[in-house]
């Protein structure tokens, strides 16, 4: 049981770190132009230098929603981690980690909304580059989506022994 708890804890910490990286780094879409490689994230457009991401007025609300939901997913993931540690030491034997699982599933839902909006609105939208493809931050966000769902379900099923 201790090994299972430690494994879940490690995967949860890895998920939090990957969420931070995928939100902060600017490599959601990567393309090439005549001046070199271009990468865009949620915040900046980077070529040789980084500038604020140019977004049309119709896509601005979508980008703000993606940014907000990614930040919310980080917050909920950290809250779930703190709740797990608190419940680990205060929960009676035989009880389940319901609160931790519920908060982690809210994190999962925030990641789902953010990445779905980004996929629908911004995939292939790099008009200033050619050969655009998804970067590692986009892939990390989808990996965090999977991990947060698995961790959330495990917390709901897991009993303290």
UniProtKB/TrEMBL annotation:
Localisation per UniProt entry: Membrane
Family annotation (Gene3D superfamilies): 1.20.140.150
GO cellular component: plasma membrane
Topology in the lipid bilayer: Multi-pass membrane protein
Keyword Membrane set for record: yes
TM spans (from-to): 7-29, 65-85, 97-118, 138-158
UniProt main location, coarse: membrane
The organism's place on the tree of life at top rank: Eukaryota
InterPro entries: PMP-22/EMP/MP20-like, PMP22/EMP/MP20/Claudin, PMP22_EMP_MP20
Pfam families recorded: PMP22_Claudin (PF00822)
UniProtKB keywords: Glycoprotein, Membrane, Transmembrane, Transmembrane helix
Entry's family note: Belongs to the PMP-22/EMP/MP20 family.
Protein name listed in UniProt: Epithelial membrane protein 1
Provenance organism: Helopsaltes ochotensis (Middendorff's grasshopper-warbler)
Phylogenetic placement of the source organism: Eukaryota, Metazoa, Chordata, Craniata, Vertebrata
